[in-house]
Amino acid sequence: MKTRLLLVDDHAVVRSGLRMLLENEGDVEIIGEAGTAAEALASAADLKPDVILMDIGLPDKSGIEATREIKAQFPAVAIVALTIHEDEEYFFKMLEAGASGYVPKRAAPEELLTAIRAAAHGEVYLYPSMAKLLVRDFLVSEPTDKNLSSRKDLTDREHEVLTHLAEGENNEEIAKALVISPKTVARHRENIMHKLNLHSRAELVRYAIRKGIIKA
Q: Which helix (H) or strand (E) holds 65?
């Protein structure tokens, strides 16, 4: 089954280039384009993409805010940031907004395709230079991280849910994998975040890398 992809960038020439790059891939189908955050939200509702390639610098509002709004309304849609911005501020804000990947526009086409495919399978993909920022961030915050509770405080079921969460799966996907209801997954997720003293997706990803649940 092909990954249904929505392209979001305010430059038509960039969208055209991405289309030329991706449309010949046998496992990717470009189902639409958007040049603003408003268009992206409307297209997400109308077209039901599997993955959205999201630029950060949009004219009406940032791609970060667009990501947050889309994930709130359509949590099953995976979003990969494709941007010129490579500094920590944008990177961490996109993760906190719910992005499943972060790729700079200077990256090789193979890196972008890897990110799209990873996101489509519910995984988190970080471009190597961005992953280093994440690793550096939790190494610098080592004293604070020592205050985190141990995974030993989690039940066996919470261990299972945590592993799926760290791979970027949403509540519905986890529920199907574990044969439980999405509401039960949500309750486990709240318990996990509380027990581990985590407050955002970015913190969850940092914790998961530190504990070897996922690899940067």
A: helix 63-73
Radius of gyration (Cα) for the chain, nearest Å?
A: 17
Burial of 126 (0-12, 13-18, 19+ CB in 10 A): buried
Query: Which tops the pLDDT comparison, 154 or 52?
Result: 52
CB atoms within 10 A of CB 94: 28
Count Cβ atoms below 10 Å from residue 23 Cβ, excluding itself.
Answer: 11
Sheet holding 125-126, edge to edge: 28-34, 3-8, 51-54, 78-83, 101-104, 125-126
* 199 or 78, higher pLDDT: 78
Token readout for 131 is: 């992953």
Of 178, 165, 173, give the one whose Cα is nearest residue 204: 165
State phi, psi for 103 to the nearest 5 degrees: -130, 125
Give the C-alpha separation, 97 to 58, whole Å.
16
Q: Which phi and psi angles does 104 have, rounded to 5°?
A: -75, 155
**b vs e for 173-186, b when ≥16 Cβ sit within 10 Å of the residue's Cβ?**
bbbeeeebeeeebe
State pTM to two decimals. 0.65
Residues with Cβ < 8 Å from 72, sequence gap 6 or more? none
Q: Which domains does the chain have, with CATH numbers?
A: 3-126 (3.40.50.2300), 138-210 (1.10.10.10)
